[in-house]
Design brief:
This protein is α+β, with helices and mostly antiparallel strands. Helix content is 28%, strand content 22%.
C-alpha cells in the first residue's frame, strides 16, 4: 500500500513529487454526465498555485491542468479521470547541501526509516506541492456536489498566531474570503494584523502557524456511517492528512468541555418549510457520525512551516551532528494557500459520502 489513495466510492490517487517531472491524480468513481473542462478546475488551482500570493513562496508554477481521460464531448464518461501537471520551475540543486542530513520537523528521517531510501529534493511526496492534485480532484467533487445537492463549501483563515478573526460562519461567502487577500481572511481588521504577523516572520527568517475554518452549507442529513466511518472521523482523517496539519475540531470542539450538557445540546425545531433543524450548531452538523442537515463547521490547525532560515542543529544520515541553514523557496505561512486545499478535501469527503449513501439507500 502506497498511502496515496483516498476515498471509497469517489476515489482519488495522487502521484508525483515537488521537484520531479510533474504531478497528477486519477479520479475514479465520478458519475457520468457531469459537464467538466479544465476551465472548471483552474480557478481553484490558481488559488493554491505558488508564486501568486505575495505572502507565499517565490517559486512560480502555472499549475495548468491537462485532463487526459474520463471526459468526452465535455461530459464525464464514468471512467477514470486522469489529471496531469508539469513541474516547470523545479530547482532540485537547491537541496544538494542538505541532501544527507535530516531537517528538523520534516519527513526526511521518517521516510528514510520507512523505505530505506527517499527523494531528497523538496521533501518528495511529503511536500505541499503534492496538494495541487488534491485541489484538482476536489474541484471535480465540488462541482458534482453543487449541481447535485446545492452544497456550498467556504473556508478562510480564522487565526494567525494569536490574531483571531471574527467571521459569521452562517453568512460568509467565497467572495468575501477572496476580498481578504492575500491572507484569505474576510475580517478586514484581523486580516491587516495577520498580514503584519506573517510579513514580520518572513522578515526575521522565521515562520508562523494558525487555523483555517471551514463551513459546508446545504449538506443533506444522513451522510456518514456508524461507528468506524463516521462523517466527522472522515473529515478529521482528510484534514490531518494535509501537510503541516496538527489539529482538528468540529462544532464546539475543545471549547465544548467548558459547558455543561444542559448548555451544550442542540435543541431540535421545525423551520417554516417544515424541516427539522437545530436552534444551535454546537454539534458542527454531525451527530452520531451522520450529518444532521445543519452546516458542517470545523477548524484545522496548521503548525509553523518547518523550513525557516535560521541556523538549526541536526544530524546527518551517518549520525554526525551538524549546524545548517535552510535554502530554497518556501512559504512563511501555509494558511493563505491552505484555504482552498481544506475546501478540496471537504468536497472529496462529502462526494464520497453522498455516493455511498446513494448506493446503499438510493437517496
Amino acid at each position: 500500500m502506497s498511502g496515496s489513495t483516498f476515498g471509497h466510492m469517489f476515489r482519488v490517487t495522487t502521484f508525483g513529487e515537488s521537484h520531479g517531472g510533474g504531478l497528477g491524480a486519477i479520479v475514479d468513481g465520478c458519475p457520468p454526465g457531469l459537464a467538466l473542462s479544465a476551465e472548471d478546475l483552474q480557478p481553484d488551482l490558481d488559488r493554491r498555485a505558488p508564486g501568486r500570493n505575495p505572502l507565499g513562496t517565490t517559486r512560480r508554477e502555472a499549475d495548468e491542468v491537462r485532463i487526459l481521460s474520463g471526459v468526452a464531448d465535455g461530459l464525464t464518461t464514468g471512467t477514470a479521470i486522469g489529471l496531469l501537471f508539469d513541474n516547470t520551475n523545479a530547482r532540485p540543486k537547491a537541496y544538494d547541501e542538505m541532501a544527507r542530513l535530516y531537517r528538523p520537523s520534516h519527513a526526511d528521517y521518517t521516510y528514510q526509516a520507512k523505505y530505506g531510501h527517499r527523494a531528497r529534493s523538496g521533501g518528495g511526496r511529503a511536500s505541499a506541492r503534492e496538494t495541487v492534485a488534491r485541489v484538482a480532484a476536489g474541484a471535480i467533487a465540488r462541482k458534482l456536489l453543487a449541481e447535485q445537492l446545492g452544497v456550498e463549501i467556504v473556508a478562510w483563515v480564522d487565526q494567525v498566531a494569536d490574531v483571531v478573526a471574527s467571521v459569521d460562519p452562517g453568512t460568509v461567502t467565497r467572495a468575501a474570503v477572496a476580498a481578504g487577500a492575500p491572507v484569505e481572511c474576510p475580517d478586514a481588521a484581523a486580516k491587516a494584523r495577520m498580514q503584519a504577523v506573517i510579513e514580520a516572520a518572513r522578515g526575521a527568517g522565521d515562520t508562523v502557524g494558525g487555523i483555517v475554518r471551514c463551513v459546508a452549507r446545504g449538506v443533506p442529513a444522513g451522510l456518514g456511517d456508524p461507528v468506524f466511518d463516521k462523517l466527522d472521523a472522515r473529515l478529521a482523517y482528510a484534514m490531518l492528512g494535509l501537510p503541516a496539519a496538527k489539529g482538528f475540531d468540529l462544532g464546539s470542539g475543545f471549547a465544548g468541555i467548558l459547558l455543561r450538557g444542559s448548555e451544550h445540546n442542540d435543541p431540535f425545531v421545525t423551520d417554516a418549510a417544515g424541516r427539522v433543524v437545530t436552534t444551535t450548531n454546537r454539534s458542527g452538523g454531525v451527530q452520531g457520525g451522520i450529518s444532521n442537515g445543519m452546516p458542517l463547521d470545523f477548524r484545522v490547525a496548521f503548525k509553523p512551516v518547518a523550513t525557516h532560515f535560521k541556523a538549526q542543529q541536526t544530524v546527518t544520515e551517518d549520525g554526525e551532528p551538524v549546524t545548517f541553514t535552510a535554502k530554497g523557496r518556501h512559504d512563511p505561512c501555509v494558511l493563505p494557500r491552505a484555504v482552498v486545499i481544506v475546501e478540496a478535501m471537504t468536497a472529496l469527503v462529502l462526494a464520497d459520502a453522498w455516493l455511498r449513501q446513494r448506493g446503499q439507500v438510493g437517496a
